[in-house]
Write a structure and sequence with these properties.
By secondary structure, this protein is of the alpha/beta class. 17% of the residues lie in helices and 37% in strands. The strands form two sheets. It has a 28-stranded mixed β-sheet that branches. A 14-stranded mixed β-sheet has the order 3-4-7-10-13-16-19-22-25-28-31-34-37-40, sandwiched between helices. Helix 1 crosses helix 2.
């Protein structure tokens, strides 16, 4: 039984009487209206994500999962090798900012030091450090008042404000729970740096948005590095991100083999509003699920040099640049059942030797550039996505190899799929995709050895093939008329100046190993 057209489903969901007479343009308007309904939902909560995504995908055989399960957060763990536990006596003190910066620079470099110093209110800036113990916000305030003097952490009603940067040491922890609202004082350069445990179960963290008179562009941020881990669920983060510095852009996580985290980090069922970006660098494992990410100043989420990352059941809306960016050799990345809407860049963009990536069952629409952008990537499976009404290409693939595009609906984009500088290191297959009313269905330059298998071009107009692939249009249409299910763009020698050496060797090895399994 042939799978029903997702676009027609969206139309019949709201205008059933038009189910059999809808034009292509009515299909496009139906998609746009449905997306706009979500954009206009001002009180949208993370629980709305499942309703929205399921309504878009429930009848098109997308691989759905149960996203109603209650999030569980692992208990804090003992710190090995120094006999420290969470029952250890709480200890806090004030230390020079330089001590914190020198620790962070071990993993994150030092290019942000000068700016952070400039943002501090006093020349001899100090930081409140949690050396040991697992403290709530109330416990931290009480302890600071008793030992260090009042005014470092203040409280008004249910809102706490940190008037100094906070640093969580490897033997320390801070817990923010339901009803706790923490403001970071932007005017004095406050931020959170975590090399221990930051556990946020409900509550919120935000800038107080008071201008920093010493460094106008400064904004508070949360960064987790060294051996730290941060677990966030059912929370709200807003107005965070010091632009221009990689690990300070909003909410960031940095790891490496030299500093193995003490626990798993994740963000679940939370809202991030006007956060510069969620950034992962060198992470080996991370779950980002059931979140709403809107009005990001930069990329909604950026993943660099990381592996085993799960990005699922999220809404990315109005990102300042790309909705999701994967780069710098990241591998084993799963991106499934997300809505990526109205980004100022690409909806999803991946590049720079990233490999072994699954992009499945997403709605990628109304982005100002390309829906799914792929550049210098190995081993990508993109399946069962709705890619609609993007201002540029629906899918753009450059200098990449071992690509499978399977059962996607590619609708009303400027170009449905663009393929350029194809690297002949593995199969390149378009199978069972539907192309509807794109300016051009598939276009290519220096593209060779491409297999078309059982794709539906019945509603694709005005052009089916374009660019250098345009020369195959008559043969392709003849094959369609003859109801032949397969069509091959023949292999031929192309001069791209690119070889497998241009992509990381590990990317090729991982990809080829996967393809023969």
């Amino acid at each position: 039984m042939i799978k029903r057209n997702i676009s027609m489903f969206l139309l019949t969901l709201f205008v059933p009487e038009m189910a059999h007479s809808a034009s292509v343009w009515e299909v496009q308007n139906s998609i746009n209206d449905k997306i706009q309904n979500v954009i206009d939902t001002k009180d949208m909560t993370p629980s709305d994500i499942s309703i929205y995504l399921n309504r878009l995908t429930e009848t098109v055989a997308f691989r759905t999962t149960d996203i109603s399960k209650e999030n569980t957060i692992a208990a804090p763990i003992a710190i090995e090798n120094n006999e420290a536990t969470w029952s250890q006596e709480p200890d806090i003190e004030l230390v020079p900012l330089e001590l914190v910066l020198s620790n962070l620079s071990i993993q994150m470099g030092a290019n942000f030091h000068v700016s952070l110093r400039l943002a501090q209110k006093d020349p001899g800036a100090r930081v409140l450090i949690i050396r040991s113990g697992n403290l709530s916000l109330e416990e931290l305030k009480t302890l600071a008042d008793e030992r260090l003097g009042e005014g470092i952490i203040t409280k008004e009603d249910d809102a706490y404000t940190a008037h100094l940067p906070l640093f969580i040491w490897q033997t320390g922890g801070l817990q923010i729970t339901e009803g706790d609202n923490l403001f970071l004082d932007q005017s004095v350069g406050a931020f959170i740096a975590n090399s221990g445990a930051l556990i946020i179960r409900g509550g919120s963290i935000a800038s107080n948005n008071k201008p920093n008179n010493k460094l106008n562009e400064f904004k508070p941020f949360i960064t987790t590095a060294l051996m730290g881990y941060t677990q966030i669920a059912n929370a709200k983060l807003s107005d965070l991100g010091f632009e221009g510095y990689r690990a300070l852009k909003g909410v960031s996580f940095s790891s490496s083999a030299f500093f193995a985290p003490l626990g798993a980090s994740f963000i679940k069922s939370s809202e991030l509003d006007q956060v510069g970006s969620v950034e992962l660098n060198g992470m080996a494992g991370f779950e980002f699920s059931q979140n709403i990410v809107k009005n990001s100043v930069n990329n909604g989420m950026e993943v660099r040099q990381s592996s085993n990352i799960n990005i699922s059941h999220n809404v990315f809306l109005d990102s300042g640049n790309h909705g999701i960016k994967i780069s710098d050799g990241s591998f084993q990345i799963g991106i499934s059942q997300n809505a990526v809407l109205k980004s100022n860049g690409n909806g999803i963009f991946m590049s720079d030797g990233s490999n072994v990536i699954d992009v499945s069952s997403n709605v990628i629409a109304q982005n100002k550039r390309t829906g799914l952008g792929v550049q210098r990537v190995a081993c990508l499976d993109a399946a069962k996505n709705l890619i609609a009404s993007n201002s540029g290409n629906g899918i753009s693939i450059e200098q990449s190899f071992a690509i499978d595009l399977l059962e996607n609906e590619i609708v009303t984009n400027k170009v449905g799929t663009k393929i350029s500088d194809r690297l002949d290191l593995g199969e390149f297959t378009l199978s069972s995709n539907k192309f509807i009313a794109n300016g051009v269905g598939v276009t290519g330059s220096r593209a060779t050895g491409i297999s078309f298998v059982e794709n539906d071009f019945s509603l694709q107009f005005p052009r089916v093939l374009g660019g250098e692939l345009g020369q195959y249009t008559n043969a392709f249409l003849d094959a369609l008329d003859a109801q032949e299910t397969n069509f091959e763009i023949p292999k031929h020698q192309i001069e791209t100046g690119l070889t497998e050496i241009n992509l990381p060797v590990l990317a090729i090895d991982r990809c080829m190993e996967r393809k023969v399994m």
